[in-house]
Amino acid sequence: MKKIVLGMAVAAWAVTGVSMLAQAAPVVSPATAQADQAVAPQAPKPVDVNPFTAVNPKNFTASSPTVADVNAFLTSIWGYDEARIWSVAAILKTPAPGVAKVVVFVADKGQNGKGRQTVFFVTPDGKHAIADTVIDFGAKPFAETREALQARVDGPSMGAAKSDLLLVEFVDLQDPRSRQAQETMTNLASDFPQARIVVQPLPITETHPFAMRAALYGSCVRTEKGDAAYFKYQQGVFDKQAGLTIADAEKTLTAAAVAAGADGKSVLACADSPEAKAKVEASIKLATDIGIDTTPLLEANGHLLSLTGIPYESLRKIVAFQATQDGVPVHLQPLLTNLK
């Protein structure tokens, strides 16, 4: 279940719907790229005009994954983008036993000559793809993570009671980017009223020395006053984030707790308790187990997405597409900026 994931690398994949390479190479003929390898022929994603060079039948040596496997995987991560087209150009054996090299040509409809080449590797068990990081592979690459989240998330929540569409935000209360992401979370709550939205604390203590303390206070506010009070507390901390200093951190956190309706003294005592620490550490363990090591990140039914690196229109399209893939009907309204 555990994946080798380095936080910002994951965000880079998510920016383009899990694009396989941050630096994409120009499209070249697969026959030129791997003339001495063998590849099974395959039809590209249906388009009006095929911009891709015909694949070389000799360029398929690996028996697994199949072209159908690769297309199913790419559909699961790129299918939200109606303009994106691709062609599986090669599936090659490598010197590592059972590891296959996959070459895919990617382009946008109507932009002939502006395509790019993406390369990734598939592990012998057919369950993981490796480019600049490791993610799950297959027609439903996010299903296992989705199931783990549905079983284990226990943070403050809002929205729907059911977890058919589960949006899990991993947040560090001292992280400026987590603060900036709250507008995006507000918009997601509005666009997806059928979603259950859960916040899981992930204090990055190496760079944010008061993040753990803020998370402990938040856990105690929730214990005393409930989820709605937690969200008031969270916003209060974000609003006064500059006060998270050696001199003022405790005062800032206590003020946010009191403003949310909690008792300052009882929250302070709770924040020093083993029970509060255990709750926050369990959330950190959940993040580690599913391969998250930075904030702010969003899991949309197991699909890991950057909350600050993806334009909002693309982000909500990915969330809607993932929901549809999982059998959850959604109906997005046009953004005001898109109305004519």
Per the principal axes of the C-alpha atoms, what is the gross shape?
elongated
What's the CATH class of the largest domain, please? Alpha Beta
- Report Rg: 22 Å
Estimate the helix proportion, in percent. 25-40%
Number of helices: 12
Overall mean pLDDT stands at 86
Record field, number of beta strands = 11
- Strand percentage lies at 15-25%
How many domain units?
2
The poorly predicted ranges are 1-41
From the N-terminal CA to the C-terminal CA, the straight-line distance is 46 Å
CATH topology label of the largest domain? Glutaredoxin
From the coordinates shown, what is the CATH architecture of the largest domain? 3-Layer(aba) Sandwich
CATH superfamily of the largest domain: Glutaredoxin
Largest sheet: 6 strands, antiparallel
Kindly describe this structure.
The chain is an alpha+beta fold and 340 residues long. The protein folds into two domains: 7-139, no CATH class; 144-289, Glutaredoxin, CATH 3.40.30.10. The chain has twelve helices and eleven strands. It has helices at 7-15, 30-33, 67-78, 143-152, 176-180, 182-191, 211-225, 227-239, 249-259, 264-271, 274-289, 312-325, and strands at residues 25-26, 84-93, 100-108, 116-122, 128-130, 134-136, 157-159, 166-171, 196-201, 297-300, 303-306. The protein is elongated, with a radius of gyration of 22 Å. It starts with 6 loop residues before the first helix and ends in a 15-residue tail after the last helix.
